[in-house]
Amino acid sequence: MLLVQKFGGTSVGTIDRIRNVATRVARAKSEGHDVVVVVSAMAGETNRLIDLAKSAVNEPDPRELDVLVSTGEQVTTALLSMTLLSMGYKARSLQNHQVHLVTDSSFTKAHIKRIDAQQLRGALKRGEIAVVAGFQGIDEEGNITTLGRGGSDTTAVAIGASLKPYAKNNLVCEIYTDVDGVYTADPNIVKDARKLKRISFEEMFELASSGAKVLQTRSVLFGMKFDIPIHVRSSFNDSEGTMVVNETNDMESVVVTGISYDKNEAKITVIHVSDKPGIAHSIFAPLAEAGIVVDMIIQTASTEGYTDMSFTVPKSEMKPAMQILQELVKQKKAIYVVGDEKVAKVSIVGVGMRTHSGVAATMFKALADARINIQMISTSEIKISVVISEADMKKAVEVLHREFGLG
Amino acid sequence: MLLVQKFGGTSVGTIDRIRNVATRVARAKSEGHDVVVVVSAMAGETNRLIDLAKSAVNEPDPRELDVLVSTGEQVTTALLSMTLLSMGYKARSLQNHQVHLVTDSSFTKAHIKRIDAQQLRGALKRGEIAVVAGFQGIDEEGNITTLGRGGSDTTAVAIGASLKPYAKNNLVCEIYTDVDGVYTADPNIVKDARKLKRISFEEMFELASSGAKVLQTRSVLFGMKFDIPIHVRSSFNDSEGTMVVNETNDMESVVVTGISYDKNEAKITVIHVSDKPGIAHSIFAPLAEAGIVVDMIIQTASTEGYTDMSFTVPKSEMKPAMQILQELVKQKKAIYVVGDEKVAKVSIVGVGMRTHSGVAATMFKALADARINIQMISTSEIKISVVISEADMKKAVEVLHREFGLG
């Protein structure tokens, strides 16, 4: 079997931990597997490099920033490879100009275009453990690029996809992290949260994009697109983690698979705007121009030609967003703008929602019974999210976890 | 004119110093020159990375060590390029997989085979300042290599050579360092040591290889081979430094150009070896096998079929060398082996020696008059070296500096 093992910054944060990783990699190799390892920079290193850049110039050039921070993963590949070699294993570090992981030229947030797996196949055929730098690539001109935060997960799954023919579909992408799998809810909040043995790509994607930090959303999309099974597991113990796989029929018998929350959003309400065509545009166009991403939006029913508009933005963007919207008040298009940082988003996710009706009603009733006020609601095919007061968040997650029988 | 400017680790040791370098580079560009900058790792960074490797494994794999330490220069290229960009100059960092600086596969001590200057020419034609990582290359298979300590000087001169046709021979390689040129002797030792305006490649090579640390010997050989004028100057002030150029006729009117010393050698004497064919081989073959480089060798006149053999090795190698030679004593091929760390080598260098006789005699008489005992002598066409007691070194340099009228 081909194992693509990805180790994050915490797992390779010290020389001792790199030794632990080497032991684990070596064991997989000894068991007869082909092994490709994808590593992040040692914990703290990427931030150290970014700070170095910011001490040099206020706004570092994106191309040069990528040249700088990509050294972080390169260091880890070398340290892990020399450790494996000293243990008597054949190993070889590979940077992205060697692996030919080609991206577009969007420095600091590049997208993978293709991987020429020839080098990797060669290394595997020679019996070597290939140790690849995560998070980075080269563009068509050979410039160094990076994939943005969390990009190493994506590197690992993309490498899995590129080696699928070589592995004759017999492969797993193992994402080693500091938690031992995907849970029905955050175990820090819900005492009887249960580790999931399996979860579908769709559910994982919705959980990840609504606050669960266990896996990067882009890597989930890659896994879904190329059907690469992802095993999320802990780098600190040997217990089985959670398999993220394509949906199977039996999955739909469970209505709700997991509950996620997100405390990093803030709610902004624009009060008493005239309810005319184009008003949404006049609110959201200047925000988009400023690069502020808006998540949920609700509009209250119109009263005498006026309405209130509420939406959520990342907490860090609340102040700049409100400054921009003050312009509407000056132009007398709105009475005032109010922001609320003390909110949280709680989401329930499950492919079973497709076939089970009344899930939303059950959710809202459970929250009402617990005297939790719902401020905003949004839904997708397999997810229902509500915005509530941050003070109610913990209780909401516990109540829903019990209500949908996840314990 | 094309300027290839090389800045060493001290010159780029802090963000402030990188800013100073950027100012100097920008000035050259503003004056209308094509500029390629070659940078070392920030002072201390290479050692930090090597220490990191040694904390991971006892003997780091050479290939992986190169992957690790080459990140040091990459960091500097990015920091300098983003600084230049923030000042409004077009600049672009280039690593060696981008410059196509191809070396052999001798990891940690690779030799340059060729540079495909296409990328560099492209950057220069676009009006960009090209900022190249010194000290490193790639081999034919795309593996990262390094040129060994001081390799950045060699990178700079080699890049100059590769761009000579582009520059139509109108180029200078500027080596910025923490001294402001090449002196007739170390100014720390000789008060009236004089900065040389010009020196020939041959003389510079002999001075560098006999202890003067101002320029790396391999870079001098490259400059000589491809006739690239090298300007050695300070990165901390604007004064003219020393031009290292091809020999001209007027140079020979000066007999001795400079005096160098080396305190990093130790003398080993093997006492009472039987003076038979093959005895030198039995002494030096095991040393060579152990990778110990022997510099000067002298053999005393044979007495009754026995002789003493003295030679110098790097101080750090004295102990292992003596352990190896104890084997000869065990085999009764010698009576005993004695080592002396308290020696120094003093050399006088000058192309004028070719045409002036009696230079050696003058040197030996001056030392004798100063009651300095000569332990070993070696000569080349333009250099005479003597090994003396380390305690006499300073006096010897002063005496010779005066004797040959260098003040």
How does this model look, in words?
2 copies of one chain form a homodimer. With 407 residues, chain A is an alpha/beta fold. Chain A has helices at residues 15-30, 45-56, 62-69, 71-86, 96-99, 118-125, 151-162, 201-209, 217-226, 279-289, 318-330, 359-369, 393-403, and strands spanning 2-7, 34-39, 91-94, 101-103, 112-115, 129-133, 136-138, 144-146, 171-177, 198-200, 230-234, 242-245, 258-262, 265-274, 297-299, 306-314, 336-340, 343-349, 376-380, 383-389. In chain A, the strands form 5 sheets. In chain A, strands 3-6-2-1-9-11-12-10 form an 8-stranded mixed beta sheet, with helices on both faces. In chain A, strands 13-18-20-19 form a 4-stranded antiparallel beta sheet, with helices on both faces. The mean pLDDT of chain A is 92. The A-B interface holds A 15, 18-19, 49, 52-53, 55-61, 63-65, 67-68, 70-71, 74-75, 77-79, 81-83, 85-86, 92-93, 95, 97-98, 142-144 and B 15, 18-19, 49, 52-53, 55-61, 63-65, 67-68, 70-71, 74-75, 77-79, 81-83, 85-86, 92-93, 95, 97-98, 142-144.
Topology:
2 copies of one chain form a homodimer.
Chain A: E1 2-7, H1 15-30, E2 34-39, H2 45-56, H3 62-69, H4 71-86, E3 91-94, H5 96-99, E4 101-103, E5 112-115, H6 118-125, E6 129-133, E7 136-138, E8 144-146, H7 151-162, E9 171-177, E10 198-200, H8 201-209, H9 217-226, E11 230-234, E12 242-245, E13 258-262, E14 265-274, H10 279-289, E15 297-299, E16 306-314, H11 318-330, E17 336-340, E18 343-349, H12 359-369, E19 376-380, E20 383-389, H13 393-403
Parallel strand pairs in A: 1-2, 1-9, 2-6, 3-6, 9-11, 10-12
Antiparallel strand pairs in A: 4-5, 7-8, 11-12, 13-18, 14-16, 14-17, 15-16, 18-20, 19-20
